[in-house]
Each structure stands twice: as C-alpha cells, then as structure tokens.
Amino acid sequence: MESKFTEAHQKLSEDGHESECDKIAKLLDLMIDGEASTEEQSYFNTHIEECVPCFESHQKQKLLKGLVSGHLKRVIVPESLALSIKARIQETV
Amino acid sequence: MSEQTGKQLSKEEKDARFEAELLPVLDPLYNFAYRLTLDEDDANDLVQETYLKAYRFFDYFEQGTNAKAWLFRILKNSFINEFRKKSKQPAKVDYSEVEGYYNSDDVEGEGGVASTTDMRTESVQDLIGDEVASALNALPVDFRTVIILCDLEGFTYEEMAKILDIPIGTVRSRLHRARNSLKEKLEKYAKSMGYNS
C-alpha cells in the first residue's frame, strides 16, 4: 500500500506541474496557525494520512511553533512599571 | 451615562477606563518590547511611551475593541520611528559557541563533568528555552516580530496585518521565511536533542 502512494506522488512531481505535496507545503503554516479554511483542512488532512513526508513536515512545523510558544521564557514585568505609567497618566491633562 | 465617548468622560472616569481596558495588556506588551529591543531598560521606556501615546489617543479608541492589537500597533510604530535607531542591534549570538558549550563534557571552571551532567537533567526545559531565545534573538527584527506575534501572542494573520501595516499575503510570506530561518538556526540543536530532520 505504501509503495502505491509513493509512486503516485513521484508521478505527480515529475510532470513539471505543482505536485500535491507542493500544495500541501504551502498550507503548512495556515494549518499550524489555525488559519486554514474547512476545505483546506480536509484537503490537507486527507493528504497527510497517505503521505509520510508531508505528515512529517507537518509534525516538524508543529514542533517548531511549540518550541516558541511552549519554551520561550516570558520576562517578568518590573513592579514599578505599572505604577509609573499610572502616575504619568494622572499627571497628563 | 448615556454616551460612552471619551470626550464626555471626566478625567477620573477616563483614567479608570484607560486602566481597566489597557493595563491588562502590560505583560504581553512588555514582553513584546523586550523581544524587540533585547534590553530591559529600553523595553521599559518603550512601554511607557506606548501607554502615554495610547492615553493621548484614547478618545479614538472604541471601547470593547481589540485593545491588545491596538497597543501592539502603537508600540511597534514607536519602535520603528524612534527606538530602532538607538536600540541595540539584535544580539549576534554565536550559535555554534552556545551549542558547543552545551554539548561539551569538559566545561572548565564550572564544577567539572558531574555537575554538568546534573545540570542537563535538571534544567532541560530551561535549556531549550535559552536555545530558542538565542536562535530567535539572532533573527532580523522583522522575522522576530512575526514569530512573536503569531506563536507567542497568538494573533491572527488579520490582526498581524493591522499591527504591522502590511497585507495578509506579506504576513504569510514573512512568517514563512522567518520560520525557515529559525528552523535553520535550531536544526543543529534539534538533532542533538534527538529530532532528526
């Protein structure tokens, strides 16, 4: 079964036209950012169920986003900042 | 109170409304400022300046609309107009140096091999965070900005387009290039952590 899918994708990319995998690559960011339309989502999901390289690209892109959202430390706001903003605003006429 | 327009509010009412609507954004705003300037004092100044500007234009702010996006836009413009010239250039972190350090088994003057090993197991989370920060800080500021807005602050492409004053198509392409760049910088590290690319 696997070989059949591999063949199919090779055929698509050999004819010079944009392959299905190229289209999927363009949807990667939209997918991980929750910006893909319903149609794009189902097109994407159907494809990655069958295509291992695209499935892996998707995993990697999710991992990259997760590294930033989950591991980048937030800096702590200095306590004085809110107070000085309030003070400066109150002075403003 | 029949009308809610800012001009009809007393100074006290306006201040209270301002604080209630806009001060909750202080934390993400300060973090954004810090990621842009890479300096705590500069971030502090930039955030203060942003709030003072927002206060001057508060009459034009519609209550209940996206306060966070509005403040981010003001801050980003302030950064470009006034701050960029004087703020420090993105720290040019020598990635290979950092990477070499963490992979090294013989860190000199740091308590030897044993403590290095302990450090590895104890603070893997911190280590990843530091690595991501180094890679991110080494990106050009435009790339850093879209990644922060999207991945850290969770803005939509449409909100990002408004904050940055660019078309959505440009948001998408810039984000794509920024991620490729970040990916490159993190690739070595990812491999050392067992992710094969």
UniProtKB/TrEMBL annotation, chain A:
InterPro entries xrefs: Znf_put
Superkingdom, taxonomy of origin: Bacteria
Alphabetically ordered keywords of this record: Metal-binding, Zinc, Zinc-finger
Single GO MF descriptor: zinc ion binding
One Pfam family here: zf-HC2
Putative zinc-finger domain location: 21-54
Descriptive protein name: Putative zinc-finger
TrEMBL record, chain B:
Any single biological process term in GO: DNA-templated transcription initiation
Keywords: Sigma factor, Transcription, Transcription regulation
Family assignment from sequence similarity: Belongs to the sigma-70 factor family. ECF subfamily.
Organism lineage: Bacteria, Pseudomonadati, Bacteroidota, Cytophagia, Cytophagales
Protein name: RNA polymerase ECF family sigma subunit
Superkingdom: Bacteria
SUPFAM superfamilies noted in UniProt: Sigma2 domain of RNA polymerase sigma factors, Sigma3 and sigma4 domains of RNA polymerase sigma factors
Domain RNA polymerase sigma factor 70 region 4 type: from-to ranges: 131-181
Protein's organism: Pontibacter ramchanderi
PANTHER family (UniProt xref): ECF RNA POLYMERASE SIGMA FACTOR SIGR, RNA POLYMERASE ECF-TYPE SIGMA FACTO
RNA polymerase sigma-70 region domain segment(s): 26-88
The keyword Transcription regulation appears for this protein: yes
Gene3D superfamilies for this protein: 1.10.1740.10, Winged helix-like DNA-binding domain superfamily/Winged helix DNA-binding domain
Signal sequence, renumbered to the chain: none
Gene Ontology molecular function: DNA binding; sigma factor activity
